[in-house]
Specification:
Helix content: 55-70%
Strand content: under 5%
Order of helices and strands: HHHHHH
Mean pLDDT: 96
Low-confidence stretches: none
Largest sheet: none
């Protein structure tokens, strides 16, 4: 299963905390906990968990069904982003989330390249129609 971006974000927080505790990181340089508050991580995990629940059977699904699942996860992530003043996901996080969606679909047998091409899109435009983050 594709690794949720929140897993690496949590790892980064823990790693930074360990460096702070060991005295090898200047507290003024610590930023991970501020970038990824627990509320954001929990809300993002809930959205991704719901998406994972929709994945079963998408390999044999119609394009419309696959796009409906993508739309659903993107709109839910939009809501998480809005709840954090529109700044929950910066460039790196956006890329990680898009990669996670793509990889999750691919693991279920969805040919993302063919899917997007059939609709005049590039592979990395899969989420663009709905994404506000």
């Amino acid at each position: 299963m594709a690794e949720r971006p929140t897993t690496s974000w949590r790892h980064g927080i823990a790693e930074e905390a360990a460096e702070l505790a060991a005295g090898i990181l200047d507290p003024e340089c610590a930023c991970m906990a501020g970038l990824f508050p627990e509320e954001l991580l929990t809300a993002t995990d809930a959205v991704l968990c719901s998406f994972e629940g929709q994945l079963a059977g998408l390999g044999d699904a119609s394009d419309e069904q696959v796009f409906a699942a993508v739309e659903s996860v993107v709109l839910a992530l939009n809501a998480v982003n809005e709840a954090h003043n529109g700044s929950a996901f910066e460039t790196d996080e956006r890329e990680e989330l898009c990669h996670y969606i793509d990889q999750s679909l691919t693991e279920q047998g969805v040919d993302v390249v063919a899917l997007t091409a059939r609709h005049g899109l590039g592979r990395y435009q899969l989420t663009d129609k709905w994404r506000k983050w």
